[in-house]
Design a protein that fits this description.
The structure holds two protein chains of two kinds. In chain A, strand 5 (45-49) and strand 6 (53-54) form a beta hairpin. Chain A is globular and about 35 Å long. In chain A, strands 2, 4, 5, 6, 9, 10 and 11 form a seven-stranded mixed beta sheet that branches. Chain A is an all-beta fold. Chain A contains no helices and eleven strands. Chain B is mainly beta. Chain B has strands at residues 3-7, 10-12, 18-25, 34-39, 45-51, 58-60, 68-73, 78-83, 92-99, 109-112, 116-120. In chain B, the strands form two sheets. In chain B, strands 2, 4, 5, 6, 9, 10 and 11 form a seven-stranded mixed beta sheet that branches. Chain B has a four-stranded antiparallel beta sheet with strand order 1-3-8-7, with no helix packed on it. The radius of gyration of chain B is 13 Å and the shape is globular. Chain B starts with a strand and ends with a strand. The chains are: A mainly beta, B mainly beta.
């Protein structure tokens, strides 16, 4: 299985901050990398697919970049509704795997 | 609007069985692959199983192979997960998720249900 390592595991931030989350793959996965937002008791939400393509109706303050083994998710001007856990997921393999998540908390 | 509604979760003893269902609406169900993804208490997301649009090709994570069976009834717009020989480590919220494109293998999940809780305990 392809391992994904997310860092940091948690971070504290304030509304208006710009934050960057990292996801590293155990092998090259080209741009087969997706990002999801997950809030407790809610359905996970697709934010970014193919490393950098914004999913429909997702605010433009979310952006993704990277290829190969190193990927980032940047949230510009953090909003109240953005406090959540973010997961990366690889779709390179026919058996997808997720990172362990980064929890974004209020400072 | 695409909606996915899971059902069938509950409390089961180790070694027992459960069948989860996921009813889809607002989408041409037969055109898309579907998957089950779970989240154990205090843990992250784990993909469990996937199924092609036709139902002819299935995929499983190693830990559930031989115990879980994924299937679908396109005439009823419903996805299933038959879970046998359940273990404590199968305790989780189980989500069904729809593929973004009509590709054969699990890829990118653009819609998810709210989840159904499965608890495996003596």
């Amino acid at each position: 299985d392809i391992q994904l390592t997310q860092s940091p595991s948690s971070l504290s931030a304030s509304v208006g901050d710009t934050i960057t989350l990292t996801c590293r793959a155990g092998q090259s996965i080209s741009t087969y990398l997706n990002w999801y937002q997950h809030k407790p008791g809610k359905a996970p939400k697709l934010l970014i697919y193919a490393a950098s393509t914004l999913q429909s109706r997702v605010p433009s303050r979310f952006s993704g970049s990277g290829s190969g083994t190193h990927f980032t998710l940047t949230i510009s001007s953090l909003q109240t509704e953005d406090f959540a856990t973010y997961y990366c997921q690889q779709s390179y393999s026919t058996r997808p795997t997720f990172g362990r998540g980064t929890k974004v908390e209020v400072k | 609007e695409v909606q996915l509604l899971e059902s069938g979760g509950g409390l089961v003893h180790p070694g027992g069985s459960l069948r989860l269902s996921c009813a889809a609406s607002g989408v041409t169900f037969s055109s898309f692959g579907m998957s089950w993804v779970r989240q154990a208490p205090g843990r992250g997301l784990e993909w469990v199983s996937g199924l092609s649009a036709s139902g002819g090709v299935t995929y499983y994570v190693d830990s559930v192979k031989g115990r879980f069976t994924i299937s679908r009834d396109n005439s009823k717009n419903t996805l299933y997960l038959q879970m046998n020989s359940l273990r404590a480590e199968d305790t989780a919220v189980y989500y069904c998720a729809k593929e973004r494109l009509g590709v054969a293998s699990p890829d990118t999940f653009d819609y998810w249900g709210q989840g159904t809780l499965v608890t495996v305990s003596p």
